[in-house]
Specification:
Structural class: mainly beta
Order of helices and strands: HEEEEEEEEEEE
Number of strands: 11
Shape: elongated
Helix content: 10-25%
CATH topology: Immunoglobulin-like
Radius of gyration: 18 Å
């Protein structure tokens, strides 16, 4: 009986650890794109020679994440979540309420097939003390 209770407690704590800590006001944070804080590669479903100005959709199985630490962002006095948006197509935001939770890059985005871009991780709700974190990305079409 003791062993069964111990297993339940361990499993319960393991679930909490994998969910991450909640995003709260007055915290420093940063963003990750495909596990990188800068110069992240975003693979685009653009095949063959790429024409200037050509756009396409991100390929599946790519990720966004928010991490806690001194990486440029600050939740400010009100922030309880962070929303990631691609500068080149801000139509879809990915909302985070916990650190360390990986979410997919939306494949519905319409992004450049090549070149550089930016993902902006903005605290929500915003406040005068809130500061967004950014991650530079390189859009790469597939051969």
């Amino acid at each position: 009986m003791f062993f069964a209770s111990l297993v339940v407690v361990i499993v319960a704590f393991a679930g909490v650890a994998t969910a991450g800590f909640p995003i709260m006001p007055h915290q420093q944070f940063g963003g990750l794109v495909n596990g990188n804080r800068a110069n992240a590669t975003v693979r685009m479903a653009c095949f063959g020679p790429i024409r200037p100005g050509q756009t396409g959709h991100p390929m599946a199985n790519q990720s966004l994440e928010v991490i806690q630490g001194p990486y440029g962002g600050y939740t400010g006095s009100l922030g309880k979540s962070v929303v990631a948006r691609f500068r080149e197509d801000p139509s879809v935001g990915v909302q985070f309420t916990h650190y360390g939770v990986v979410q997919p890059i939306p494949t519905s985005l319409d992004l450049p097939c090549g070149g550089q871009g930016l993902v902006v991780f903005s605290p929500e709700p915003s406040s005068p003390t809130a500061k967004a974190a950014t991650v530079t990305v390189n859009y790469v079409g597939q051969p």
